[in-house]
Amino acid sequence: MTLLYFAWLRQKIGRGEEQLSLPAEVKTVSDLVLFLKKRGGGFEDAFADLRRIRVAVNQDHCGFDAPLRDTDEVAFFPPVTGG
Amino acid sequence: MITIRIQSEDFDIAAEIAKLDAENTGAVATFTGKVRREGDLTTLTLEHYPQMTEREIARIVEEAQTRWPLLGVTILHRVGRLMPGENIVLVAVATSHRSAAFQACEFLMDYLKTKAPFWKQEERNGTAQWVEAKYSDDKAAERWRNK
Question: β-strands B72-78, B87-95: how paired?
């Protein structure tokens, strides 16, 4: 799967994109967040407060309970501030 | 005619309005969002999620089309580094009558601000800071839900 990070998440994590083979224990976005936080460092910092994070799967806004497949594009970002 | 463009360069508002002029157009409402000229703000940098942005804006336009009889919509949004006084976003709506044009224009902006994946970073006195989303913007978008 492709993981994308935007705005301050990208800065805290230190990159904007990565490829990941869906880990067996990851069924939902929440599971993926837990998996990423275990890496520690910037990931732990970036995902410290999920109320400040929004997620999109395959370019659709969704909740942290959304199911994941290995072919998905998952994007994490702060609440949007365009316009 | 629906036009959605994400671009780094500025836009010509008069030219965009002229392009919107469809048959039966009786009203064109436009909104332009600009970088405020305020105190120590030196630049505003806009980042976006390229694969998602146009799709999300198209969805917002579709939603507006179910609510009002729109003859044309143009949404242009700039990305990259902008200076105070520069244009950020243009929303222009052509309809037969003014009420729909005003309402659709406001609806499109309210949804754009809460749904379209753009992020602003301000630079003040050499320090860059991400702009926090506003609760008031969520409230503005929410009031359309039951209409």
Answer: antiparallel
